[in-house]
Amino acid sequence: MHGRLKVKTTAQQEEAKRKEREQKLKLYTAATSGAFKKRLNGEFDEEGLKLTGEILSVNPDFYSLWNYRKEIFLFMKDNKETEFVQKLMQDELGFLESCLKVNPKSYGAWHHRSFILENMPHPDWERELQLCNTFLEYDERNFHCWDYRRFVVLTSDVDLEQELAYTTEKIQTNFSNYSSWHYRSKLLPVIFPDPTHPVRVQEDILLQEHETVQNAIFTDPDDQSAWFYHRWLLGRGRKKLQISCVHASRKTNQILVLLTNYIQVNHGHQLSVNINSSPVTGEWRNVTGTNSYSIIWILTVKDGFPGGEDLSIGVTLLTESDCTQFSQGLQLTQGQDEAWTMASYKAGTRFSIELSAAASSTMEKELEAIQELHSVEPENKWVLLTLLYLMKAIDPVHEKHQDDITEAIEKLTAVDSKRKAFYLDLKSKFMMEKILDVQDVNTRDMTLSGLDLTSLCHTEWMVLVQELDVSQNHLTSLKPLGNLPCLVVLIANNNDIDSVEGLQHCKQLKKLHLQKNALRTVQAFSTLSSLPLEDVNVSGNPLCNIENYTEALKAILPALAPS
């Protein structure tokens, strides 16, 4: 009919769209192919920028093309006049801005913008900071833009207190802005450093920050951003790197060193030994026999300890970055098979620094504030977890808050059941810290049975233990016991253990009782074949249903005593 617009059918529309997509794909493929061909031929010119620009303008996450553009700009920088390069890079910043409007969270575009600014003859940092402001107005939680903002600030002369004020503005607009809180945690130690703790913040500033974050958590107790910042404010202290224990054994011809922190020997740190003032050579290895990061290091004395005389053994730890040294010595007399020295700690101080480096008065005030919030939010997991950490930091040996700590953990497992295993492991960690904090550091016999432990923590502090009982718990793994090179007897009955992984590093283990656990195969013991195991009891495990399992076990463990 005349005078009426012809309307395409659905089928015609789909066909038109299909043809349009095919045409776009052909153009995209041709441009991509052309760009790769030019790169392969070493053609670093403006045509390469044009080709890659056509693709990146619709797909800013094509990393290979960004890399090609980088190569072009580096070539131009080395071969063209400064004014030409400045103009080219200025145009590139405009192009990048259009790409970021397509995808404001494009890793490739933000990284390329950093590259351009680093290589630009005359960068305009104030313009870049304004661009960050613009994009953070679109999305105040765009962490790509926050990362780029930190790059701009670090590279230019932006006033840091001005930046801190900017984070305050963003936080007041939205307490849930995690990136603002995070950026704030990076700025404060630089602007207001604590002279006694280089990575901490001045105490008066910390108190102000506590007020700021309390406003946030009382306004919205369910928002995790402010809680993470609150945890940062309480802080975790840094242990000073030093030697905690030195153990020497004539039987194994080894010297063992326990440190306060993890290091990698010969990578920034050195350990050296002398016996009667003579240096001892050899390779330091951790308990697994490798050179990876560890807190325990072992040196095998190649020719054994000199016999028939008293030995004065000295160990020195050198930190190469600041040339600090820490030395520890011990005496191994003629009639001794072994000797050791272990640093002593005041009860309640061994692990407290891991929980908080804040002053006790600060933590007491925070505890009062969080208890007040708890009275109106009794089932909030963040409130409960923070209460837990504060009480543990204030009362590390559980003399004052024992019942409250236990109640908080039980409540957490109920209100946040998806993380029940985490809270039970945390309970086990606290329990072990309480025990280790008050026990004799020289103990060789230790009992941890019937404590409802789900995991074993801080086993490095049990490095001297020879006999250990962890029966009647809820353990599934013995791997942490690999830190016990002196272990001779292990009783681990009535648990949920399904593997002996870790025990292969207990080179002196002779007695192993694993009754009523979850061990299913005899082959699981193959890693223990080199140990001097004489007494192994696995009754009550599923593997006992295997025919002739005892014979199979003896075949794997040749040191087992005959029945």
TrEMBL record:
What GO molecular function terms would the record report? Rab geranylgeranyltransferase activity; zinc ion binding
Keyword Membrane in record: no
Which parts of the chain span the membrane according to its record? none
Q: Which reaction does it catalyse?
A: geranylgeranyl diphosphate + L-cysteinyl-[protein] = S-geranylgeranyl-L-cysteinyl-[protein] + diphosphate
Q: Which GO terms describe its cellular component?
A: Rab-protein geranylgeranyltransferase complex
**What Pfam family is a match for this entry?**
LRR_4
Gene Ontology biological process terms, A to Z: prenylation
Q: What is its EC number?
A: 2.5.1.60
Superkingdom of the organism of origin: Eukaryota
Query: Residues in domain Rab geranylgeranyltransferase alpha subunit insert-domain?
Result: 243-340
PROSITE patterns annotated for this entry? LRR (PS51450), PFTA (PS51147)
InterPro entries, per database record: Leu-rich_rpt, Leu-rich_rpt_4, LRR_dom_sf, Prenyl_trans_a, RabGGT_asu_insert-dom_sf, RabGGT_asu_insert-domain
Q: Which UniProt keywords apply?
A: Leucine-rich repeat, Phosphoprotein, Prenyltransferase, Repeat, Transferase
- Note the PANTHER family from the entry: GERANYLGERANYL TRANSFERASE TYPE-2 SUBUNIT ALPHA, PROTEIN FARNESYLTRANSFERASE ALPHA SUBUNIT/RAB GERANYLGERANYL TRANSFERASE ALPHA SUBUNIT
Which family does the similarity line name? Belongs to the protein prenyltransferase subunit alpha family.
Give the protein's biological function. Answer: Catalyzes the transfer of a geranyl-geranyl moiety from geranyl-geranyl pyrophosphate to cysteines occuring in specific C-terminal amino acid sequences. Catalyzes the transfer of a geranylgeranyl moiety from geranylgeranyl diphosphate to both cysteines of Rab proteins with the C-terminal sequence -XXCC, -XCXC and -CCXX, such as RAB1A, RAB3A, RAB5A and RAB7A.
This chain belongs to the protein called Geranylgeranyl transferase type-2 subunit alpha
Q: Which organism is it from?
A: Magallana gigas
